[in-house]
Amino acid sequence: MIEIAFLGTSASAPSIRRGLPAHVVMFEDRRFMVDCGEGTQRQLLRSGLGFRRLETILLTHAHLDHILGLAGFLSTVMRWEILPRVAIYGRRGAIERVKDLIYRVVLRGTRPSIEISFHAIEPGVLFEDEKFRVSAFPVTHRGGDSLGYLFQEKPRRPFLVEKAEALGIPPGPERRRLVQGHPVTLPDGRVVTPEEVLGPPVEGASLALVGDAGRVDDLVEAVRGVGALVIEATYLEPDRDLARRHDHLTAAEAAWLARAAGVRHLILTHLSRRYREREIRQEAQALFPHVWVARDFDRYRILKDGRLEVERAEAYEIEEERDVLAESERAGAGHSGL
Ligand SMILES: [Zn+2]
Ligand SMILES: [Zn+2]
Q1: Which end of the chain has less Cβ packing within 10 Å, N or C?
Q2: Which is catalytic among the residues 65, 239, 296, 298?
Q3: Which residues lie across from 231 on neighbouring strands?
Q4: Is the pTM of this model over 0.85?
Q5: How many domains does the chain have?
């Protein structure tokens, strides 16, 4: 099971109900924070997740709505020494900008009180163990240098208890060795191989997370067949020309990708105040049935059989949000990112 918590679901600037992009992805006791928009540390507290084990931060790209929260997050973590270390990963452009923010603005020549490391990465596998893999894939978005992340629980062969019973294998270390793929010799001298007691491989849970993107045709292979695809939907089709101009997607384009790649569930985020949640969902659902429009503090658990368990944040009427910033967007400021 892989779980994702949404800490910020707004595009470009926060709204009354939505913070700037940040997600926490959890697998067993591992946690990864993906992006860290302004205000993320308060969202972490409000979500109940807190700062524990947030030692790995993955950045999708260098735009300010995705990285500015690192200054506040790291200064708090350093002041209280909440974490022993923080490692930040992203493509070179994102890492360079974040280094400027941390070294030139936050630290200004002082030594950090915890270990902070920066890792300029390219697409490929980032972390891997016997159960889990995290990899990065290229995403096309303004400024280049963007990454999406794929979280995969590895396929597992289930242990067939009935077969083990029938073969007379006692519960305990022999069964554990078989699960690990080793043959065992029973007290009566018989040798049992894993093949005899393990079922066919069962696909693990998987989650693909795309930050901002300007096109989807080059993402089909990277996200093929995942249990859940999280991706931006900054615009709707009537504003497709704005989407192209600012290198963002419409909800319909995100849904096209979900359908073309055969994913199980589509979760839309990076939303504009100019639309209502219902409009975004409807546009996507015309192409792909299993659509969620994320809200701050939503949690989604992706299970190995492709099912999704959803813990929705409190419902609210997004349409009530009509503020000054929204007015200026309608006047044409758009989601240019910075
Ligand atoms: Zn953005
Ligand atoms: Zn961007």
Answers
A1: C
A2: 65
A3: 268
A4: yes
A5: 2
